[in-house]
Design a protein that fits this description.
401 residues; 8-stranded mixed beta sheet; globular; 5-stranded antiparallel beta sheet; alpha/beta
Length: 401
């Protein structure tokens, strides 16, 4: 549904909505016939919300498509990621409040480790700590190119942002250099149209300079570039949905995607309890709240089934406090699936629960993939969830006479 049509239905009145995102929530069994990570976790509070509410599964982008975190969150905010498409670079830059100017091109980058043959041995360089990565980012910030100024800012662990300030207009349609799995060489930055060829050349020159500055290291000796993008001019969330929106996340990228659509995003410490504090501190001033919890995704990407189970249990523990804060509608889901058995994002649909008036329960008695498959909502697209939450909060007017 087009955002301008939603804006005409959103009158501005109604209840408060909480979106609680457990990043990478969806999973797969560790052994045939066994439970997924969510089903193996002890989640009495989420189960209670599921019993009193309604459940279903959602495809963040479309069936069979493996989503990145950016498209996955845009869908949860009500933006169809097949229409509103941007690279992760701009999200990462906004996440650290980098002042992107007109014509700037942002790239999400991270340190990686190459083996003696020049192939990627570790795409995340062992998730090197900030204390080690920040000086390396500062070293790369000194790179100078003909045709553009370059800025590098450390983000978190192995991640950093590269921003090009081209002297002449340049496009942002450039492919990622990340090969996607170990054992392969880094890909060359390739432009997808003529306007972006200058950007591809600048990025190739930057990578060559980065290799020289990181030479001699056995770990974090090269960089991967992803999500080449510039800032788009999209409709803003408060204007479309008629809700003053607040966001809280420990990781910059998720604050970035929230800021991209006009949310007031704040940094919180890692862990679940700080999310409760953030919600309660700002509850009176906003109508919509996005709380982001990262650990399930990290554990899934690391292939650690048990740690993902523990992370989901940590997320469940704060649910009573979130309920006590007083939101009228609570939507709990993930931005994508990250099965531990795959150690990566996947195309599998993501469970969700919707709790709030008017009360109409379904047959789901627990919160998990199997129970949600039989839920009242069936299987929908991720961008449908915001409308369901708004309708439950009494925030959408009737369509037509």
């Amino acid at each position: 549904m087009e955002l301008n049509r939603i804006a005409r239905l959103a009158g501005g009145g109604g209840g408060k909505v909480l979106l609680y995102v457990l990043d990478g929530l969806g999973g797969l069994p560790r052994e045939p016939g066994g439970p997924t990570e969510l089903e193996a976790a002890r989640t009495p509070h989420l189960d209670e919300l599921a019993r009193a509410g309604t459940c279903g599964l959602h495809d963040p982008v479309a069936p069979g498509i493996t989503p990145g975190s950016g498209p996955g969150h845009l869908a949860l905010f009500g933006y169809d990621p097949l229409v509103y498409e941007t690279g992760r670079g701009v999200l990462e830059a906004l996440g650290i409040e980098f002042p992107l100017g007109p014509g700037d091109i942002a790239v999400r980058a991270n340190f990686c480790t190459l083996d003696a043959r020049g192939r990627v041995a570790d795409r995340r360089a062992g998730r090197i700590p900030c204390a080690e990565a920040a000086p390396l980012a500062a070293r790369l910030n000194a790179i100078e190119l003909d045709g553009a100024r370059c800025t590098v800012r450390h983000v978190k662990e192995h991640r950093f942002v590269l921003v090009l300030h081209p002297e002449a207009p340049a496009g942002d349609a450039v492919n990622d250099t990340d090969p996607g799995r170990p054992g392969l060489p880094i890909r060359a930055p390739v432009a997808r149209n003529a306007a972006s060829e200058p950007t591809a050349r600048l990025l190739a020159a930057w990578l060559e300079a980065a290799a020289e500055r990181l030479a001699g290291r056995t770990q974090a000796n090269m960089a991967l570039l992803r999500g080449v993008s510039s800032q788009p001019g999209w409709p803003r969330f408060p204007d479309v949905f008629g809700m003053r929106a607040a966001a809280a996340a420990a990781y910059p990228m998720y604050r970035g995607v929230a800021r991209l659509v006009g949310m007031d995003a704040r940094t919180v410490p890692a862990g679940a309890p700080p999310l409760v504090d953030a919600l309660k501190a700002r509850f009176a001033d906003y109508d919509f709240f996005f709380l982001h919890f990262k650990p399930p995704d990290k554990a899934g990407e690391d292939g650690d089934f048990d740690r993902k189970v523990a992370a989901i249990e940590e997320a469940d523990a704060i649910v009573p406090d979130l309920v006590d804060a007083g939101p009228d509608v609570i939507l709990v889901t993930g931005d994508h699936s990250t099965p531990s058995v795959m150690s990566s994002h996947s195309w599998h649909p993501v469970p969700f629960l919707l709790h709030g008036p008017p009360a109409r329960s379904d047959d789901a008695t627990t919160f998990g993939e199997t129970a949600c498959r039989a839920g009242a909502h069936g299987r929908v697209r991720g961008c449908d969830l915001m409308r369901l939450a708004m309708a439950s909060a009494g925030r959408l007017a009737k369509f037509g006479a």
